[in-house]
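Worked problem 6 (solution included).
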Amino acid sequence: MARKPAAQAKSEQIRTKLFVLDTNVLMHDPTSLFRFEEHDVYLPIMVLEELDNNKKGMSEISRNARQATRSLDEIVSSYENGIESGIPLEAPSKKLASGKLFVQTEAIAADLPAALPTSKYDNQILAVVIHLQRKHPRRQVYLVSKDINMRIKARALGLEAQDYFNDKVLEDTDLLYTGMRELPADFWDKHGQGMESWKEESHTKYRIKGPLSAHLLTNEFLHIKDDPSFAAIVRNVSGKTAEIETLTDYTHPKNSVWGVTARNREQNFALNLLMDPEIDFITLLGQAGTGKTLLTLAAGLNQVLETKLYAEIIMTRVTVPVGEDIGFLPGTEEEKMTPWMGALEDNLEVLNKTDDQAGDWGRAATMDLIRSRIKVKSLNFMRGRTFLSKYLIIDEAQNLTPKQMKTLITRAGPGTKVVCLGNIAQIDTPYLTEGSSGLTYVVDRFKGWGHSGHITLQRGERSRLADHAAEVL
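Solution. The predicted structure is:
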């Protein structure tokens, strides 16, 4: 009977997997060591070498490399026995992981095809995976890498390889919350019994009970397919009772915002969010030309210059060039950011033409006033800041990691509204996918919170040429 625990431990070890981490996983998520639950993690010596090469600098990658190195130092230095037999991760991970961390402690001969140069770090990591697979034939050994080519090379050599999925909010972005729900045609028949309704200012409120009520989310928009006159927002959900409220119709010229009217249902929903002082955080998703920036700026100018709800508009975006980087730019922070802010200039031009009565002098004066209230800031200098009573617009937010997104949103002080704009089909950052983008992350995490709202804009409203190009190209 004395040998049973050892045999049990051996079978358990076979059941748990061994994950060999590539450097880019640690640089993408420094806490990835603790994300493999009961499975073991193995770090080749080349990963430490690459972390060392990337630790200098102020970029997000360098910061993550330093954080990963510090975590490793804490784990290794707190373990007093020899590290050859693996370091239990239960204590350092605060019970998040129950596997072990193995660090390469022996020289491993590069048993690779002759065509692969052993001087490359990637190939040396592959050699380690081959060695581990031979050493543990009964165990599943996986290479985890964010680098697609590395995974293809591994599979070509007959190795198991996979992407790092832990930061993915959704496997399929079609399941991403759209911010609106189409109600069935018989909605009122099923939910009209015992319904209460009352007027509050210019809106009608309904308190409904029924099977759908429990599935509704706060600040979710409701519409009925065959009834274009009905559009509402969910204000409160408790148990099987929901409170819904009719919307302001921003498609009507009398409700125009800085001369802009909504051209479709989703734009109307977006303006209802943007103009609501109770909503502090808004995410707008949509393809190019759906009106994200124009609607956001129009609502911002209205609330800064007319209702004076916010002190100024701050606009920032991730500076990821689509072509070649244009290098260092002269001038102040605002001047350096100017080439990245073409979208801002284009939209201000449209907004400044909305007043037909003003004449050229009046428009020039308005433009100067608008420019004095819009500040363009670089993301690089956001750490440690606090924005009070500001209207903060984060453009191209799909290129942010969840960690960068957290850094930005936590800058918001009292009275600040944060609006994130982006198109998750247009990610320019390496290692970020539609499922792991910071924008997808916040849409999923904030849904149902009483002071946040989201809408996915569907239709392009630029021109017939742009719409046709989006369809056929």
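Discussion: Residues 60-78 form the longest helix (19 residues).
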